[in-house]
Write a structure and sequence with these properties.
Strand order of the largest sheet: 5-4-3-6-7-8
Distance between the termini: 33 Å
């Protein structure tokens, strides 16, 4: 993430991260995809896998069925370079051009907020795109239950909570195949994957998802998946297994 933000301290952080990997007896990751994404192949022999994510399914649940939601798509998260949200803003003219009823939510705050606002102003889209700023976690379920699609065009991710929370609310997710996202989203089955986060690719895939004939069924399959795999009990079971193996 620091590399994508071009942080000046990145070389120092990388040095200490490598030192920790060398000195550690075990490295616990929450996805096997991180072994290649984070260049951890030399330490594969001491890596264990256990995700730490679980949801409150009484809070994150379906309150508005997908067919009853307004024509609204969006992004919710940090507005910064590594999240690719500027590319989402750049894709909006192509997305909205042929869909006059569609509106967009870009929720969050961060260093890219001003450039996103400028793009919307230049393209004449301010009336159709809502920028509410940072959304408190307790307020997320009502927002997610209004969206027909959540778009996550990130360059890099771990396992984004907002993706799991959206799926629990019955909201389809379109994301790039980074981090642990492919562990959860199988294209056309539990959600949707786009090849990259170029504006052209985002626009093409948003249209693909919104016109998909089995969108409701895929959203339901995604909801069932997170309800089975991301319970507190499942997280405890994973860590119990890891701790027993270490012991």
């Amino acid at each position: 993430m620091m590399k994508h933000q071009q942080e000046p301290l990145t070389p120092i952080i990388v040095f200490f991260a490598k030192a920790n990997c060398i000195l550690a007896d075990r490295i616990i990751l929450y996805s096997p995809n991180f072994i290649t994404d984070w260049h951890l192949e030399p330490y594969r022999h001491k890596i264990l896998i256990a995700h730490r994510h679980f949801l409150d399914f009484e809070t994150f649940t379906v309150t508005t069925p997908l067919p009853d939601r307004p024509p609204l798509i969006g992004y919710i998260g940090r507005l910064s370079g590594e999240k690719g949200v500027q590319h989402f803003a750049n894709a909006l003219p192509a997305i909205l051009n042929d869909r006059q009823d569609l509106r967009v939510l870009i929720g969050g705050d961060g260093p890219s907020r001003d450039s996103i606002a400028a793009t919307l102003q230049e393209e004449g889209l301010t009336a159709r795109v809502d920028l509410p700023g940072w959304i408190p976690h307790d307020d997320l379920p009502p927002y997610l239950n209004q969206l027909r699609l959540l778009v996550l065009p990130s360059y890099t991710e771990g396992l984004p909570n907002i993706m799991l929370e959206a799926m629990a609310c019955g909201t389809p997710v379109l994301a790039t195949p980074v981090g642990a996202i492919p562990d959860v989203i199988i294209d056309g089955k539990t959600g949707f994957i786009m090849e990259n986060n170029s504006p052209e690719c985002i626009a093409e895939n948003v249209v693909r998802v919104l016109e998909h004939p089995e969108l409701e069924e895929i959203a339901e399959a995604g909801r069932r998946f997170v309800e089975e795999e991301f319970t507190f009990e499942k997280a405890v079971e994973n860590w119990k297994r890891v701790l027993q193996e270490i012991g």
